[in-house]
Amino acid sequence: MCNKEKYYITTAIAYTSKKPHIGNTYEIILTDAIARFNRYIGKDVYFLTGTDEHGQKIQEIAEEAGITPQQHVDVIAGQIREIADMLNISYDGFIRTTDEDHVKAVQQIFKKLYDQGDIYKSEYEGWYCTPCESFWTDTQLMDGKCPDCGREVHKTKEEAYFFKMSKYQDRLMEHIEKHPEFIQPESRKKEMVNNFLKPGLQDLCVSRTSFTWGVPVEFDPGHVIYVWIDALSNYITALGYTPEEQGALYKKYWPADVHIIGKDILRFHTIYWPIILMALGEPLPKQVFGHPWMLFGEEKMSKSRGNVIYAEDLVRHFGVDAVRYYALHEMPFAQDGTITYDVFISRFNSDLANTLGNLVNRTVAMIQKYFGGVLTGNTVSGAFDEELKTVALTAVEKVKEKMATLHVADSLDEIWTVVNRANKYIDETTPWVLAKDENEKPRLATVLYHLAETIRIIASLLSSFMPETAENIRRQIGAEDITFERAKEFGILPVGTKVGEPVPLFARIDAEKKLEELAAEMEAQKEPEMELEPYKAPVEFSDFEKLDIRVGKVLVCEKVPKSSKLLRFELEVGNERRQILSGIAKYYQPEDLIGKNVLFIANFPPRKMMGLESNGMILSAEHDGKLVVTTTLDGIQSGACIV
């Protein structure tokens, strides 16, 4: 017996900042369909997914909630795994980056790179985007903001370790040129080469000291390893890789056949990750596929907009396989796709209830009605038979070809070509007319047999995309075998096969009623508008005039030792400096405020706090339970009066 071809596929591990919505969940549905299909055609598949659990953002979220980072990630990682199981995801491995084995392996990887001179110690000063966990130079910023997510960045300066990215730049360029399939789709490859590689790679900051929630640098306490070194390494540590020892799974499955990732993290997977592997002396993955985003209409999903859709809500309303079908069929190969409830319901009714469901239901019902539920013959050929067989059998290879290039939506279109042809065959052969003539019973038996066989092939092809539906169809038509090899043959069902009861696969939805129900749910999920605080009692203008409100530029901002609440500011106020203490430490990293122009009351009498003198009060606004420092446009001169 020959060994099966190995196939290793991964998702990007999900970030545990918050519960994922359907746009985030699309990736694991896509990857599952690809993994299942490769098992279906006979490959030995290992499918890895999991959770990315370290970083500054996680620490800040946990502190805000008054819990430990570990408590926070335990909750979110549990939710992510529950969603995967609910969606019938057939993963073989689920890694968490807080797993002890992973942490140890990452520390060893970092030490190896340091020992061989690829990592060195220096000081980092530049821009950092906390949501993306990304470093940027001045020239890389877009309008002063993160070029990936468009959010604010903050200036940071700290001792750090750096990775010599430029050392491997030419090797990576050569690899991409020699392996045109390495980055897909093609548009993503051009983006990486033109925007990052050709301008030249700068050394990458790979450790942090300004927070603690990460994998510690074992030989230098106080440093934690950059979250992307930690996260990317999961693809090999999950297989038992360490620099000293390569586990059995690693030897069997690496290099990965494909990493399925979102287009927004392509840079990390096609530049940082290959260079890390080159430095480790390990093979590169064969392909990185950057899939598009699933949007709500034309917008990204946002709780504040009230347009967030969660997978469990879709499953509750429409069922698991309807959710899988929509996600897989409605997302283009290279452009962003959309999800709206009205389009979802339209596809549900047209594609699933009417086209597929009706085909199976009326075929099984006719076999029950005319032959007592038994396939009785396949002897009388007639018009349209050969065309039906040809369409069914050629679809098998067409689907295989489409899946080889990850064109999943096109693969489903090929299956629906068979479904549509089978429905047309019913209209052409008119079984209800044949049933009226006893002499046509043998022909009727053949027509129904051909329909049952075609449906068997449809069920076989659907098994990777809609596994529950495929199994339901298999039971209804009495098929024993819906494997890939038998899908390539027509005439497998034995005469005498007993079919099941004709139970509808998908019940039609009353669109108007369902949309009203869903609209009410989405409205309830919207973040409530902030209640306006009651206005204070009126004061005379002369009272306001007594306040001296000024603009101060933050020169120094640091935490006050032994205080969890206080930050110490040194403000430039015209040609003088002023020290102010403010109880906002839980809402800000000190470096976020350096360089900002803030408003403060200058004529409050000095007061002592934690042994330090505070000369004024920085103004803040309360928003969503947080204090937000009141700032001004950068162009205003420090010391200016607010009048």
Any chance you could write out the topology, listing elements then pairs?
Elements: E1 6-11, E2 14-15, H1 22-40, E3 44-52, H2 56-65, H3 69-86, E4 93-96, H4 100-115, E5 119-129, E6 134-136, E7 154-163, H5 169-178, E8 183-184, H6 186-197, E9 204-205, E10 207-208, E11 224-225, H7 227-232, H8 234-237, H9 248-253, E12 258-262, H10 266-280, E13 288-291, E14 294-296, H11 311-318, H12 320-329, E15 337-339, H13 341-371, H14 385-404, H15 408-429, H16 431-434, H17 441-462, H18 467-477, H19 484-487, H20 511-525, H21 541-545, E16 549-559, E17 567-573, E18 576-582, E19 597-601, E20 607-609, E21 612-614, E22 617-618, E23 620-623, E24 626-629
Parallel strand pairs: 1-3, 1-12, 2-3, 3-4, 8-13, 12-13, 14-15
Antiparallel strand pairs: 5-6, 5-7, 7-9, 10-11, 16-17, 16-19, 17-18, 19-22, 20-21, 23-24
Helix pairs in contact: 2-3, 6-10, 11-12, 13-15, 13-17, 13-20, 14-15, 14-17, 15-17, 17-18
